[in-house]
Structure to design on (118 residues):
């Protein structure tokens, strides 16, 4: 669809999903796991929310998609959402993609600092 994640997910991350992103009961589940697993969990949850709603999102036009992504997400089955996020987390750990991306980010940050100081 060509939608930049910054156009909807920034609010999710900045508020730790508390800014009217998900129902309160779902928010508590997200926070419980976030406190156990750390910040990476927030990214896995964002992907899980998109996957959970994928069938509906693929049917909507751009405007309706943006409305849905910026409104409170309707979560009927918290367990299913958590299972999706856990599967994504497991896949990420097995592929080591998160650690690779963190190393790449740190290298870019170092290059930026070196360029400014040099």
């Amino acid at each position: 669809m060509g939608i930049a994640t910054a156009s909807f997910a920034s609010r999710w991350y900045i508020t730790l999903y508390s800014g009217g992103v998900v129902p309160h009961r779902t928010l508590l589940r997200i926070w419980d796991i976030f406190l156990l697993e750390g910040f990476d969990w927030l990214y896995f949850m964002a992907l899980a929310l998109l996957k959970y709603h994928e069938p509906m999102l693929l049917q909507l036009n751009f405007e309706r998609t943006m409305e849905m992504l910026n409104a409170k997400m309707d979560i009927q089955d918290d367990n299913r959402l958590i299972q999706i996020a856990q599967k994504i987390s497991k896949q990420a750990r097995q592929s080591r993609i998160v650690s690779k991306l963190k190393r790449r980010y740190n290298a870019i940050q170092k290059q930026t600092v070196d360029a400014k100081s040099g």
